[in-house]
């Protein structure tokens, strides 16, 4: 059961009982969003949906040594000489570490087993870090001879380990914009009746130009990545992750990231973390996180209410901020001002969104300390309105953060997190985009993918790409999900048989044919930029032990996956 099942079931019931007309009429009459949500919430409570959810969905799994041992055994099986599936072993050991009861020996054995994998991988520094974690967690004396020996061997071999990798820092291709320091000075904001706000360039741009390097206001880690990445900084760090002390579903790369989480978003999410993962999708997740991050900006809810109501904070964007000392409060003005498209939404869209908001609100208020933070009715209504607002801004503005640094062995989907980016959210959609985003951690780099003449717009792609889905499908998605009728230059292109996300494609080998196939746009890009990508990716490749990206050729393939995007455009030239 997820929240859409609840919403569908409710609508079906109302239809069967011939109540849908009356209910949607009453719902539509309510002007304020918190009234809409409370109206739906009453129906959900009256029809016993909240009770049913409570009985069927675990809010938070308890720490459990028995399960910890089970996951460790599964990890041992993957680690065995027969299998040697080290990545899978590490993920299972991390799960075992998460489920272990605090102060139990199972936590320490989990760390010790992780150190054994790292020893095999010749990652001696991380191996020693895990040995230390195991000791601090009271590793049993009866086993300590094994750990002592591994530690001695490790110290001897440490010299052979290459130095830690310093991530590659791409630099903007132009001077910084006078107002927005992390974008190129040639970018300008414009607005039209058809497209709302959008970004243009006042100089010619060529393929490979880097025009923006942006950090998000906030981000969330997707559930499938919870035993691989740090929930706070989102860095892939399955080698030395430490668990949350209370739940079994969140890990951190350091005590600092853990403390930061516990004093902000995680104190509210932790008591219901498994319910959140089970019932809601990534859009709901980032909407909740953005709302919690907003609540965290001021000591009291009244101050945040005053901030949101001020005229100077309405409909603001990345170009309106004061970057002299960018505080989180200032940053949020641009996130609060993202388009909701509420006036374009149908009653059924708003009703479904109200169900999502009502279920989220009910459980977070009932089962976490959030209620104390919100005070009385006014604070509660404000919270509901804010959550509802971000449930509307998220689908069209939030960005999936992709993996470029490594394709690990078990995860097909390379998107690991969602992020709220003030500037990137100003780019409109094209089915044949002229920009491409790549990420280092949560930092987004925006590159030019096709030449753009001065005066023309920069376009991103919202997932409806000409090479992946048919024109008909794209128009449907864009109008249903993003609420606009697409009339971009790529609309007429229709190559769905290309059939894959460009950077997820498999380029069998880097041959002359592949190079030929790149076309003029991509050829320029390839020649001038592949070395940068190779450098970038090789450095990461070198940092990873599972040898998925270990050679320059692998890196070039990755680079081509990004660039090969524009191949069918050659036909248009
Ligand atoms: C990420 S925002 C882009 C910035 C937005 N135009 C604004 O004013 O803030 C996404 C929204 O922009 C609008 N939009 C994006 N691409 C568009 C396009 N090609 N044509 C018309 N509207 C578009 C839609 O309202 C969409 O929901």
Automatic annotation (TrEMBL):
Record's function text: Protein-lysine N-methyltransferase. Monomethylates PRMT5, modulating its transcriptional activity. May also act as a histone methyltransferase. Plays a critical role in cardiac development. Acts as a key epigenetic regulator of gene expression during cardiac development via its dual activities as a methyltransferase and negative regulator of HDAC1.
Signal peptide residues on this chain, from the entry's feature table: none
Zinc-finger found in the keyword field: yes
Molecular function GO terms recorded: N-methyltransferase activity; protein methyltransferase activity; S-adenosylmethionine-dependent methyltransferase activity; zinc ion binding
Protein name: Protein-lysine N-methyltransferase SMYD4
CC annotations in GO: cytoplasm; nucleus
Protein keywords: Metal-binding, Zinc, Zinc-finger
Lineage, top ranks: Eukaryota, Metazoa, Ecdysozoa, Arthropoda, Hexapoda
PANTHER family recorded: BCDNA.LD29892, SET AND MYND DOMAIN-CONTAINING PROTEIN 4
Location of the SET domain: 185-463
UniProt entry tagged with the keyword Protease: no
InterPro entries membership: SET_dom (IPR001214), SET_dom_sf (IPR046341), SMYD4_SET (IPR044421), TPR-like_helical_dom_sf (IPR011990), Znf_MYND (IPR002893)
Biological process (GO), any one: compound eye photoreceptor development
Domain MYND-type stretches: 230-270
CDD domains recorded: SET_SMYD4
TM regions (residue ranges): none
């Amino acid at each position: 059961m997820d929240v859409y099942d609840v919403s569908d079931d409710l609508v079906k019931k109302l239809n069967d009982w011939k109540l849908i007309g009356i209910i949607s009429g009453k719902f539509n009459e309510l002007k304020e969003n918190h009234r809409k949500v409370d109206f739906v919430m009453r129906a959900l409570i009256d029809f016993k949906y909240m009770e049913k959810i409570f009985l069927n969905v675990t809010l938070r799994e308890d720490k459990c040594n028995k399960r910890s041992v089970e996951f460790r055994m599964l990890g041992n099986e993957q680690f065995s000489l027969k299998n040697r599936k080290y990545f899978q072993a590490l993920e299972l050991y991390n799960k075992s570490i998460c489920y272990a009861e605090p102060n139990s020996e199972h936590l320490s054995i989990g760390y010790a087993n992780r150190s054994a994998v790292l020893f095999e991988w010749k990652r001696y520094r991380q191996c020693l870090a895990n040995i230390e974690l195991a000791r601090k967690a009271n590793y049993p004396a009866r086993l300590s001879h094994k750990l002592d020996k591994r530690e001695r061997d490790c110290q001897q071999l440490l010299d052979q380990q290459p130095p830690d990798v310093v991530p590659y820092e791409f630099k903007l291709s132009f001077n910084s914009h006078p107002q927005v320091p992390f974008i190129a000075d040639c970018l300008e904001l414009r607005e039209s009746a058809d497209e709302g706000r959008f970004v243009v360039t006042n100089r010619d741009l060529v393929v490979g130009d880097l025009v923006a390097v942006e950090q998000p206001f906030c981000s969330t880690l997707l559930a499938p990545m919870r035993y691989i990445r740090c929930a706070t900084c989102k860095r892939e760090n399955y080698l030395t992750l430490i668990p949350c002390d209370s739940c079994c579903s969140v890990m951190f790369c350091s005590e600092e990231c853990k403390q930061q989480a516990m004093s902000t978003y995680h104190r509210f999410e932790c008591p219901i973390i498994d319910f959140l993962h089970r019932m809601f999708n990534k859009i709901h997740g980032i909407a909740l996180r953005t709302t919690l991050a907003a609540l965290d900006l001021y000591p009291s809810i009244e101050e945040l209410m005053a901030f949101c109501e001020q005229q100077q904070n309405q409909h603001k964007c990345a170009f309106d901020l004061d970057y002299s000392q960018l505080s989180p409060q200032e940053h949020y003005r641009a996130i609060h001002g993202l388009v909701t498209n509420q006036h374009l939404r149908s009653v059924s869209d708003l009703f479904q969104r109200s169900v999502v908001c009502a279920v989220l609100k009910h459980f977070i208020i009932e089962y976490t300390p959030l209620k104390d933070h919100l005070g009385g009715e006014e604070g509660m209504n404000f919270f509901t309105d804010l959550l509802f607002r971000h449930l509307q801004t998220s689908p069209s503005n939030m960005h999936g953060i992709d993996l470029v640094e490594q394709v690990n062995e078990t995860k097909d989907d390379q998107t690991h997190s969602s992020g709220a980016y003030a500037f990137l959210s100003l780019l409109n959609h094209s089915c044949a985009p002229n920009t491409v985003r790549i990420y280092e951690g949560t930092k987004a780099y925006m590159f030019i993918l096709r030449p753009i003449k001065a005066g023309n717009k920069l376009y991103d792609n919202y997932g409806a790409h000409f090479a992946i889905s048919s024109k008909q499908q794209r128009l449907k998605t864009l109008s249903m999900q993003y609420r606009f009728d697409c009339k971009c230059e790529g609309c007429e292109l229709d190559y769905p048989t290309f059939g894959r996300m460009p950077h997820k494609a498999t380029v069998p080998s880097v041959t002359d044919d592949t190079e030929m196939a790149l076309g003029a746009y991509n050829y320029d890009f390839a020649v001038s930029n592949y070395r940068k990508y190779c450098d970038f990716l090789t450095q990461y490749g070198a940092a990873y032990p599972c040898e998925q990206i270990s050679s320059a050729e692998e890196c070039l393939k990755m680079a081509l996956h990004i660039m090969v995007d524009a191949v069918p455009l050659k036909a248009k030239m």
